[in-house]
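Q: For a teaching session next week I want to show students how multiple molecules come together into a single three-dimensional assembly. I've collected the sequence lines for a complex. Could you give me the predicted structure tokens for the whole thing so I can convert them for display?
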Amino acid sequence: MRGGKNLSTDYMLTVNGKQTEFKENQTVRNFLEEKGLEPQKVVLELNKEILSRENWSETILQDGDSLEIISFVGGG
Amino acid sequence: MSFYQEIEKYRDFDFEKFFASVNAEKVQKIMQKDFLNREDFLVLLSSQAEDFLEPMAQKAHQITKQYFGKEIGLYTPMYLANHCVNQCRYCGFNAKNKIPRQKMTLEEVEKEAKFISEAGLKHILILTGDSRLESPVPYIIDCVRILKKYFSSIAIEIYALEQAEYRQMVEAGVDGLTIYQEVYDEKVYDYVHKAGPKKDYKFRLDAPKRAASVGMRFLNVGALLGLSDFRSEVFFCGLHAKYLQDQFPESEVGFSVPRMRPHEGEFQPKVIVKDKNVVQILLAMRLFLPKLGINVSTRESAEFRENILPLGITKMSAGSTTAVGGHTFENKETEQFEISDERSVAEIKQMLLEKGYQPVMKNWMRF
Amino acid sequence: MLPLRGISRDDIIIKNINMKNTLKIGGKELKSRFFMGTGKFANFEEMQKAIIASKADVVTVAVRRVDLDSKTDNILDFIPKDVVLMPNTSGARNADEAVRIAHLAKAAGCGNWIKIEVIPDNQYLLPDNLETLKAIEALVKEDFVVLPYMNPDLVMARRMVEAGAVAIMPLGAPIGSNRGIKTKEIVKIMVKELSVPVIVDAGIGKPSEAAECMEMGCGAVLADTAVATADDSVLMAEAFAEAIEAGRKAYLAGTGGVQESASASSPLTGFLRDS
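A: Of course. Below is the structure for the complete assembly, covering every listed component.
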């Protein structure tokens, strides 16, 4: 638990290097939808391992997880 | 991959038809190119290209200066033995020729080495006939151990060896291999090599490859001009040199233009290769392979050697004899072939200096 | 089209060019030899128009973290579906990072092409050939179609080809510098010696420079900054496409050499008498 924060119901994970809250028992897919991301356009790395798309619905986020959300951008 | 597979690609190639298609325009176009491909090389070997020898010479001269400067490496051959089991129709050492057979003792090798090195030469090419019985690998290695004291670079021109034997040679201090295929046309090869282990065309063809793959630093190939149509022969020899350059970028590949000389024995040249032809060969080779070492031996006359110096030559032999113990034996016996340029090392050095070239006695030292 | 004794002009040109003109990489036949980058465009709409105008068959993209705070459109929505997508590993400073980025790119489900780009140097943006080689070795084993961006060096390029690179992408000048093909002499040697296509990447600032690369025998040219930062990027994309095609045709046609200045030196073959 994060010191200073008062809510025992708050769960925190690191998303793209930033501390972010999530709900208990929240799936990865649900988390992405909540953030307004279209699942087919991004790639995920959960704790440095690529998480394939078919596993998003059944993967439950854990406190202290590190999630990288990646997509394509312009480049040469 | 063996170079034989490269030769196979030309099995059905119609050289006559190709040469018939060459015209002046084609030659001129090639003269403008930075890099020549195989086809360009063959065009430059055509009889039509003979009309362009002067522009080819100017370009070859430029390229040679650019890659090699004005240096000419000097070396001399040393015949250790003339025992031979082969029956090569063109060679004075042919097993059937009734000539005295000799082999230097290690003491004699040392004496000869001392004599040669006193003239300042540091690169030596040792030769034997093809006799594993009389001149076995251990004997040659014993000679190399002695020669190492006097010379900074030792090349061998002996029968084709197995890879492990080349490794032994390299470990003993040999850094160069000269082995001419003599003739790339397999049928002619089979005919002129009447009998003996040298009959094995493919084994000889891959000898430079076997040597390079165990670290032989200098590789020298050549076709004996006069045995078959020289244009296609030189074409294959050029491809062979290129193949070795490509496969073994760490080795230096050289090429020689041995022209058949009168010798003991009944077989005389089948094709007469004129001076003009030798010049064309040198030029085409230089333009095709800018970094190729080109050697000219004392088979050629003093005058001709001087004339072709600026055309791409990088190395020449000096003070040569082709007889066993030719420098120090009381009774010099049969030579493998006649020497044309009989000048001494000092005279050759003087000639080079006068022509604006630097004679280089040593440009390599083994570790 | 006016018939020309029964043959149309198009027949001649198309027949001439088709024979040797397809570029085959990673089992794909590419009609265009222009590889387009997608960085630095003013917006995705413009980029889309430029890609279409370029007729490019291969388009590069980069892989980045999503910015959760400011929603942007997704670039993939603006890239024509029929092109080969070639993600690069930009941002990687060593082989491990390049491999990680390649894995992410593949997981996105847009094919298995990858342009390896390992740049530890932020000042000049010059690549690390050694780390690039290591990344090639790792990714070829995983069936990626690997195209390395590299500092032109024949020996290293040979090693990369041995390791399984399907093409070699030497830089013409530092990334984004628009200086043209400054590495010409080395690239020429690479074109001559390598058994895979040489694709000049980075530094090409003008269509004429792209044409020059193609005249030298390069397999393709990749351009990004030069197109994206032009006042009219769509027109510039078209200009590059035409220049690359023209250069390729010139290469196939065989350029007439430059006449060297007449040599004033004395004849070298005067000693040959007719005999």
